[in-house]
Please model this.
Amino acid sequence: AQSVTQLGSHVSVSEGALVLLRCNYSSSVPPYLFWYVQYPNQGLQLLLKYTTGATLVKGINGFEAEFKKSETSFHLTKPSAHMSDAAEYFCAVSDGGYQKVTFGTGTKLQVIP
Amino acid sequence: DGGITQSPKYLFRKEGQNVTLSCEQNLNHDAMYWYRQDPGQGLRLIYYSQIVNDFQKGDIAEGYSVSREKKESFPLTVTSAQKNPTAFYLCASSTFPSGPLDTQYFGPGTRLTVL
Model:
């Protein structure tokens, strides 16, 4: 069985500050990891994904995430927050079985001007 | 433009009524999915379909039904047997059988409210 834990249901940062959203996973096989963003009353949009290879993954809108196997983590970062980054972010894991993806409970990011 | 459409965006239902949510995609994807989203609970898989005329139960299928008669369409029916249907429903699609290396693309969602 696979699972995802997102630490912090709400995170607030000042505009221009570092964004750090935490994600830890469990998986019995090498995982595939995803970060999605959701704006209010909209669907989810893929930010980035890790499958194999380089552990530092760069995504859209200046976000990146690092896969750390020893820590079972896939934290999402952005050096400088922008007001448009305010949204809910979901971490997800797949164990490779027919697109069965397990989502975390989400972290709402607030950006303070 | 290719994408996934869901209709309606907002839906109101009286208790005891069945209601059908529409999901259409023109991405030529084989696989389609239905998720339910509740505040603080993330997304939970209701049903998924890998090919036409075939579908599988997800984690919370009770009180829901689906059909997959066409590749482009995967409607979800919320039946009166669903105890707490008020939620935000998301449809997604992906290519198949490419496995987890592929990405699920999401529609804009339908917000269902039971009155």
